[in-house]
Amino acid sequence: EPEVTQTPSHQVTQMGQEVILRCVPISNHLYFYWYRQILGQKVEFLVSFYNNEISEKSEIFDDQFSVERPDGSNFTLKIRSTKLEDSAMYFCASSKISSEREAFFGQGTRLTVV
Amino acid sequence: TQLLEQSPQFLSIQEGENLTVYCNSSSVFSSLQWYRQEPGEGPVLLVTVVTGGEVKKLKRLTFQFGDARKDSSLHITAAQPGDTGLYLCAAYENTGFQKLVFGTGTRLLVSP
């Protein structure tokens, strides 16, 4: 069964460093998303991406964040200068064009900023 | 931002009991999705409900979408320890399928 895959599963980085989280969405999906979940808290929307551009972003998604689809299969989230409060699980999701627009999530990347 | 309130927040029951989890909002949704999330993993889609009043069954899980499409419920019959997890409802904001927002979640623990 097709699935969204994310790498790495766990990333530890020093404060101020740049990190890139990678995702391979389901192949026939056209909408891509990043979410984050701070430990014990809600799953929060960060950004959605369609047709090679951001379609919506939250207030969390500030200038330190960027997304890219560098080729036909990968979808990346870059955090330019990580802060301690960026520590969270980051989930990538994808969906196809359908009336329900069901979103399927990856297993997540646990980002720890020290 | 539309708010999806789930209740209860926590539920601890014995194996074999029945339970119902609620997802409420003041907003109308074109569809609503239920997910289950286990610790350290991503949300796994269980079901999507689309039509007001719709009822969908997934083995021992019964999902209902409110007539006005503002609320939904998840009923589990004869809960098993394997049902333990965080249950999340989610819906797109009305702005057109770009932003899926999640509810506050119900954490379920089923003890043997």
Give a verbal description of the structure.
The complex is a heterodimer of chains A (114) and B (112). Chain A is an all-beta fold. Chain A has strands at 5-7, 10-13, 19-24, 31-37, 43-50, 53-57, 65-68, 75-79, 88-95, 104-105, 109-113. Chain A has a domain at 33-96: Immunoglobulins (Immunoglobulin-like), CATH 2.60.40.10. Chain A starts with a strand and ends with a strand. The model of chain A has no long low-confidence stretch (mean pLDDT 93). Chain B is mainly beta. Chain B has one domain: Sandwich (Immunoglobulin-like), CATH 2.60.40. Chain B is 0% helix and 52% strand. Chain B has no helices and 11 strands. Chain B has strands at 5-7, 10-14, 19-24, 32-37, 44-49, 55-58, 61-65, 71-76, 85-92, 100-102, 106-111. In chain B, strand 4 (32-37) and strand 5 (44-49) form a beta hairpin. Chain B starts with a strand and ends with a strand. Classes of the chains: A mainly beta (114), B mainly beta (112).
What's the arrangement of secondary structure elements?
The complex is a heterodimer of chains A (114) and B (112).
Chain A: E1 5-7, E2 10-13, E3 19-24, E4 31-37, E5 43-50, E6 53-57, E7 65-68, E8 75-79, E9 88-95, E10 104-105, E11 109-113
Parallel strand pairs in A: 2-11
Antiparallel strand pairs in A: 1-3, 3-8, 4-5, 4-9, 5-6, 7-8, 9-10, 9-11
Chain B: E1 5-7, E2 10-14, E3 19-24, E4 32-37, E5 44-49, E6 55-58, E7 61-65, E8 71-76, E9 85-92, E10 100-102, E11 106-111
Parallel strand pairs in B: 2-11
Antiparallel strand pairs in B: 1-3, 3-8, 4-5, 4-9, 6-7, 7-8, 9-10, 9-11
